[in-house]
Specification:
homodimer, Aspartate Aminotransferase, domain 2, pyridoxal phosphate (chains A, B), Aspartate Aminotransferase, domain 1, 543 residues, disordered N terminus, PyrdxlP-dep_Trfase_major (chains A, B), 7-stranded mixed sheet, alanine transaminase (chains A, B), pyridoxal phosphate binding (chains A, B), globular, alpha/beta
């Protein structure tokens, strides 16, 4: 590592304002956004989003306090994160009401289908992973005789191996800011085994889940509103939120619902050129594969076109591959973008590619552990040093999450004591998810609802053809029609789903995202509740 | 929680550039910083910082790749984080060389005194904390008979309590974005017991260590370069780094070395007015108590003045209280700013106060667990909703860190099985740190070195009166004189310390920060190595 460009502290400090004239106006974007048309470009269909809230922008009771909505960072006001937004806040309130006053609602529990959080809905963790974590948390039991009776032999062995990779066996110490080197070696070996192409542990940055890694790349690439990030629509709202927080511009490209959420490079090209014609400089392309919320798994040939497109257009390919283990259909397979680009003969000098992985998804579903990594390739050493510097400001990601990330990339192998149990647990979860993905058939049976299959990931994203009367009622309630539907659904059934407007959708179309994560024995009841609700909703609003 | 201001996604999207004229120029600050005087205000002494690196700003070999130092976010280039900077990179290289080629340097190990990372230097974790963490990681052993033999009864009981606070006992699920409610209840009770004033669990935001909490507040308060944050000089460089990354202005106030790093409100007032006269809008005051890198513990009376100052000037008080357990002198005591402000009769409507706490410091030193919280008070509900929204974009902090944060605020009590061991471990660590803080006497014995006592925290910050000849030699080597000294020290002894220029210091003065964390049996050898080095350095450069 070379020396970082220095003098930073100095230039940060207050100075006489020669530069006053070049400061941007205080809240440029917030003053603009309200006067903007709902969309923007003639060549792109108009997007639909929830109308701005009219909730009080001033709180007179707090007027003596120095921080107000008027003087905070306007980028925060612009940011939205529907997955934990309004509907979830309502759900939490209903849950409290049910607890305080059972029978106060026409359901007895809240079913959180809003978020990919498998263990909150009863999925059990993989035993081997938890054994290793527990042993690394309290290594002094490792050589006690009782431990043999409580833990599998390979978990004990793996814990020793991991401890030996940590300087001083100190699981309570800050690690290298990219993560413990030995764990990165393990992860690199796992990537290599997956792809058949080499991986370099120095390219791995371990992070507290994938989200901080995405933020880090957005922070790196976005200097101003002129910097654009191409994102699929519908998209996972982490991307729109992160772009908003970093002050960039989201350049949408549309997935084609009619062809199973197909990703056409002609659409990418069109949107890229449209953006450039408006003075936007597109820096990166986000691809989520398998798709969230859309569940499609990209064909290898399609991936090659995407790689070629990024290479030719000078875009960083930001590959969200956190659902790489979640593929449910026999005719599709996950291929990493790294493997695809290497198979095309493209190496470090040809394509800038960042792949995100997380311990929260897959069959492991360890959301609460906040483990993940990004593999950064095709980024020059001096730029990578800057990424390292940003990582170093937060010192390191949590060590349990780091250990878990190494475990998911290197699970038990044939012959290990845990192997059989591990396979049974893994296959049990994945085959059950595959069965649960078939809920789409029930959705397709509803009046005015069409739903593509979930080839992968953890979600269904049905389209609801809402009657005009419902749309008018939503308008009157100052809410988006799909949010109106989702709120009604929650109030009637306790089922929490996220309105399509939180993800973006072709204007005039309405969707919701629903996870396939409730346990299988609950699915029939959910389908019944949803079916009954939908029927009565349509009866109320049918034109 | 009310609805978030919406319409964000919409205004993020690419639009025809009516607003082109109000975009700020692409890299305003980077183009300015190089032409700026080293400092800035006639009323403030000039600060010293390491001169800008002249390392290559272009890498011709990577020219085909789309990301270069010229087109990344210039705020990242401005950011510096000395604690893991250049000297540490050199240390890592020397360590590798020692490993590959023992005897290649005049020392046989690297002593990392650069960072407050106790367990990396041999400090053991508190047994009770680790027992509870291990049991929560693998709850299925909780009711096995062998577990009774391996774990203390109160750790088992505590693990059950914690699991019962987690919906579905799912330690692998995302939690509420502020952290698990039951754990926040425990923390609030701990704060209340500490201060004697009520604490509200809804004011607690659990985070992955204190750093993300600091970033969140900077992100909230900083909209542009015009927003200033008052920071002590010397300061912990997380603050300067975070202000740089969010594009604000650091407004320095100077601690008075001569009076044991005293914090005078007259100095605060002077700097505040100076900043305002330059068009800067100071939003917040950072106070680090006990001090980092300076080790002073504020007197309660002084704290009252600071609270009064913030209240009158409309500043948010950002209180870094992560060293609250680290006080080593009988004549000083830690008082939280919350307690001090409440004792003055100031409540929610009077003072905006954010207190940061971490599991990384204290006697626990669990840096790798990344646990911490901020307690946010005197912030109106609508603004707090925005903080919640930002927290929700990253879903939640890691659950083990959350659990540990609850444990440090609610350790074993008299009568618990673990109590005796817990006290012995805690007292052993704190009394040893108090003894190690006396290394300052050895530093004061060195020619031209003066060092205030460390009343608290984990650092000494000696001042070195460097000879002119050394300053000239540093200039010739294009480095700051203190960095020159620290580099020489590392190369000669393997001891890693951080140059004062990374923290800020009164111009013309030179310091370094050194932790008091090496184990006691190593201290005599460290003192000898340091003394020998310093003598030979002075012999070489004495004027």
């Amino acid at each position: 590592m070379r020396k970082f460009a220095s003098g930073g502290l100095r230039s940060l400090l207050i100075h006489s304002f020669q530069q006053k004239h070049i400061l941007r106006p205080h809240h440029p974007s917030s003053s603009l956004s309200s006067s903007l048309p709902r969309f923007l470009s003639s060549s792109t269909p108009v997007l639909d989003f929830t109308p701005p809230s009219t909730s009080s922008m001033a709180d007179p009771s707090a007027s003596k306090l120095p921080v107000t909505l008027q003087n905070i960072n306007p980028k925060i006001l612009k940011c939205e994160y529907a997955v934990r937004g309004e509907i979830v806040t309502l759900a939490q309130r209903l849950q409290e009401e049910l607890l305080a006053n059972p029978g106060s609602h026409p359901f007895d529990e809240i079913l959180y289908c809003n978020i990919g959080n498998p263990q909150s809905l009863g999925q059990h963790p993989i035993t081997f992973f938890r054994e290793v974590l527990a042993l690394c948390d309290h290594p002094s039991i490792l050589d006690k005789s009782e431990t043999q009776g409580l833990f599998s032999a390979d978990a004990i062995e793996r814990a020793w191996q991991i401890l030996d990779q940590i300087p001083g066996r100190a699981t309570g110490a800050y690690s290298h800011s990219q993560g413990i080197k030995g764990l990165r070696d393990t992860i690199a070996a796992g990537i290599e085994a997956r792809d058949g192409y080499p991986a370099d542990p120095n390219d791995i940055f371990l992070t507290d889940g994938a989200s901080p890694a995405v933020h880090m790349m957005m922070q790196l690439l976005i200097s101003s509103e002129q910097d654009g990030i191409l994102c699929p629509i519908p998209q996972y709202p982490l991307y729109s939120a992160s772009i908003a927080l970093h002050g960039g511009t989201l350049v949408p490209y549309f997935l084609d619902e009619a062809s199973g959420w197909g990703l056409e490079t002609s659409e990418l090209k069109k949107q890229l050129e449209d953006a450039r014609s408006k003075g936007i400089n597109p820096r990166a392309l986000v691809v989520i594969n398998p798709g969230n919320p859309t569940g499609q798994v990209l064909a290898e040939d399609n991936q090659r076109q995407i790689v070629e497109f990024c290479k030719q257009e000078g875009l960083v390919l930001l590959a969200d591959e956190v659902y790489q283990e979640n593929v449910y259909v026999p005719d599709k397979e996950f291929h990493s973008f790294k493997k695809v680009s290497r198979s095309m003969g493209y190496g470090e000098k040809d394509i800038s590619l960042v792949s995100f992985q997380s311990v929260s998804k897959g069959y492991y579903g360890e959301c609460g552990k906040r483990g993940g990594y990004m593999e950064v390739t095709g980024i020059s050493p001096d730029v990578r040093e800057q990424i390292y510097k940003v990582a170093s400001v937060n010192l390191c990601s949590n060590i349990s999450g780091q250990i878990l990330a190494s475990l998911v990339m290197s699970p038990p192998k044939v012959g290990d004591e845990s192997y059989e149990l591990y396979c049974a647990e893994k296959d049990g979860i994945l085959s059950s998810l595959a069965r649960r993905a078939k809920v789409k058939d029930a959705l397709n049976n509803l009046e005015g609802v069409t739903c593509n299959r979930a080839e992968g990931a953890m979600y269904l994203f049905p389209r609801i053809n809402l009657p005009q009367k419902a749309i008018k009622a939503a308008e009157a309630a100052n809410t988006a029609p799909d949010a109106f539907y989702c709120r009604r659904l929650l109030n009637a059934t306790g089922i929490v789903v996220v309105p399509g407007s939180g993800f973006g959708q072709v204007p005039g179309t309405w969707h919701f995202r629903c996870t396939i994560l409730p346990q299988e024995d609950k699915i029939p009841a959910i389908v019944t509740r949803l079916t009954d609700f939908h029927k009565s909703f349509m009866d109320e609003f049918r034109d």
